[in-house]
Amino acid sequence: MIKIESVTKRFPSITALDGVSLEIREKEFFGLLGPNGAGKSTLMNLLTGYLEPTAGSISIGGEFVNRNNLEVRKKIGFVPQSLALYDELSARENLEMFGKLFGLPKKLLRERIDERLKAVELFERRKDKVKTFSGGMKRRLNMIASLLHDPVLLLCDEPTVGVDPQSRNAIFDFLTALNEQGTTIIYTTHYMEEAEKLCNRVGIIDHGKIIALGTSDELMEMLPYEETIVIAKNPSTLQHKATFEEFGTLLEEDDHFELKPGNGFLLSKLFARVEEQGMRYQWIELHRPTLEALFLHLTGRRLRD
Ligand SMILES: Nc1ncnc2c1ncn2[C@@H]1O[C@H](COP(=O)(O)OP(=O)(O)OP(=O)(O)O)[C@@H](O)[C@H]1O
Ligand SMILES: [Mg+2]
């Protein structure tokens, strides 16, 4: 449905996208995962036709995207990374304004506004000015504002940044239901948990290039190990850091260590060493590796700084 072919976008001082090719299928929930500055928002802005590629092309349903192709732009809903709301207007007035931009008839618009406000649990606050809303409430309103014209494709650029867990879950549920009803979604994030949880397929982007693409399971197969070993952080394990380092790369997190097993790793050997050193088994857990681990493996860097 969406065809991105050899797309490059150069700004005067940087190449934000460098020869990106990607096909996104109809009804897919596609995740674009990458660190700050990877090129995610640039790709979104190209998909909406707001920016033009330096080279390459983008088509949606066989039609090429560009600034002047209004027909194709009508098919798209865009939830921008920065909020696009009027603080002095109420939630409903904001939505009425967006609805008018899309040219929706009054009665239909009124129905849709109520329905969508209920779906994201903002109906009770419909008459309140946006400036009185929490960050998470603004995010939810920002999301439905881009959907009033029932687009076939929804682009969401980091819709959960700075959002409380309750709003985040409301956004997840809303998007999942929308996707089940047939809307194709492209979702950018630098939270790997979100990509894993929501998306059928994930593209990992770094320095303007897609460096890995597939379902979570397919991506995990790119890792040379099948599990991450999570070790509790306490005086005993801190003292034995060197023991764990014999078995692979040890990452120190706030409250635990993560061991990425090296070549020829055997769990039985690790446990034998742990026993030898008088440490307790209970401090050690096996976890399925995460997309974060894959990013680290592919780039040598963390997704989040
Ligand atoms: N309009 C612009 N003019 C110049 N440089 C830009 C412009 N937009 C983006 N860039 C640069 O292009 C690169 C990619 O930026 P982009 O906003 O696409 O990254 P991102 O993956 O969305 O990052 P974040 O997670 O921080 O939102 C960055 O180095 C950024 O500074
Ligand atoms: Mg961005």
Short description:
By secondary structure, the chain is of the alpha/beta class. It has two domains: 2-220, Rossmann fold (3-Layer(aba) Sandwich); 228-288.
What's the number of helices? 12
What is the CATH level 1 assignment of the largest domain?
A: Alpha Beta
CATH topology of the largest domain: Rossmann fold
Bound molecules: adenosine-5'-triphosphate, magnesium ion
Mean pLDDT: 92
Global morphology: globular
CATH superfamily of the largest domain: P-loop containing nucleotide triphosphate hydrolases
Counting helices, strands and paired strands, the structural category is: alpha/beta
Could you please describe the fold and organization of this structure?
Helix 3 packs across helix 4 and helix 5 (about 135-145) runs parallel beside helix 6. The chain has helices at about 40-45, 70-75, 90-100, 105-120, 135-145, 165-180, 190-200, 215-220, 235-240, 240-245, 265-275, 290-300; strands at about 1-10, 15-25, 30-35, 55-60, 65, 75-80, 155, 185-190, 200-205, 210-215, 230, 250, 255-260, 285. It starts with a strand and ends in a 6-residue tail after the last helix. The model has no long low-confidence stretch (mean pLDDT about 90). The chain is about 35% helix and about 25% strand. It contains twelve helices and 14 strands. It folds into two domains: about 1-220, Rossmann fold; about 230-290. Strands 6-7-8-3-9-10 form a six-stranded mixed beta sheet, with helices on both faces. Strands 2-1-4-5 form a four-stranded antiparallel beta sheet, covered by helices on one side. The chain has about 300 residues and is an alpha/beta fold. It binds adenosine-5'-triphosphate and magnesium ion. Adenosine-5'-triphosphate (ATP) binds next to strand 2 and helix 1.
